[in-house]
Amino acid sequence: MLLLAADIGATKTNLALVSSDASPREPLCEQTLPSGDYADLADLVLDFMAHSRTRLGSRVAPDRACFGVPGPVIAGSVEITNLPWVLAEDGLARDLRVERVTLLNDLAATAYAIPFLTPDELYQIKPGEPEPCGTIAVLAPGTGLGEAFLTCAGGCYQPHGSEGGHTDFSPTDIEQIGLLEYLLERFDHASYERVCSGIGLPHIYGYLRQTGEYEEPPELATALQKAEDPTPTITECAMRQPDPAPICVAALEMFTDLLAAEAANLALKVFATGGVYLGGGIPPRILPYLESTVFSESFVDKGRMSELLGRIPVHVILNPKAALLGAACYGLNAEHP
Predict the structure, then answer these.
(1) 118-318 in CATH: which number?
(2) For labelling alongside 313, which of 98, 133, 235, 259 has CA 20 to 30 A away?
(3) How many Å is the Cα radius of gyration of the chain?
(4) What is the per-residue pLDDT across 190-232, written as a single tens digit (0 to 9) for each?
(5) How far apart are CA 188 and CA 211, in angstroms?
(6) Helices marked H in the chain — which ranges?
(7) How is the chain split into domains, by residue range?
(8) Cis (ω within 30 of 0) for the bond into 159?
(9) With contact defined as beta carbons under 8 Å apart, do 6 and 13 qualify?
């Protein structure tokens, strides 16, 4: 059986053609295409299949497809976040001429990959004592904030997507209350995604700059004005040695504090005794901050639940294509008819 797997993003889509006779880590063909260059997913996939046939030297036709998609999948349909695509499993199966198409929330796909990741694809930032077959929580601060979790039954894990990143941001100290007020002056709704993501870090920076407590170096102000995306600039200036910019350090420390608090919130809500995993593009880039006491202390700072959270380990996912691996593994699993 040949499976077409894909991790669809607003900027790019990773695709792979995998066989049930081989490991999903050894695709027959793999390619990354710019999502925004295509009117719909079917056109993008057909381009990939043309590339696959050229590379493999024969006519290949997948039997099934499994796509990790950004957005809530309801009754086999989804409206893609930040792309003008509305996808439906039945319609895609017809357009792509495959037996079956499965749409899976992209964070659920990332979550499903976790049991298949190797030790060198994970980085532990907080030790703990995971329960065998315990529920696993996943947060992915990238452009936005994705959240998902895995539950275990009969030794097998089942992924569950969520839109938890859009829940209300709840400050825990005076400084964070000031951040909330800053956000409410600019947005109708202040969610955790507004502070724990690529779009969130600039909000934290803007708030700290507005307080007047930190000096903004002129060269940094110029770089931020020119940057299409200010998040990498803020991160790089916070990580720069030996002279990091204090305002960027403060912004990244607050980001770390807030991410830890929300990771603990999710862990408590789904009772994630199997561990918490951080995916997305940001965590691997800020490991020194995530290993700091700022993260660990904020994570366990939940009153009567502190002891429970102290036993939960936290890892960073280092594999940038975990969602593609998860979609492939899920699609190849015979238990999903």
Answers:
(1) 3.40.367.20
(2) 235
(3) 21
(4) 999 999 999 999 999 999 999 999 999 999 999 999 999 999 9
(5) 22
(6) 41-56, 89-96, 106-113, 174-184, 201-211, 218-226, 230-239, 246-270, 287-290, 293-300, 306-310, 322-332
(7) 2-104, 118-318
(8) no
(9) yes
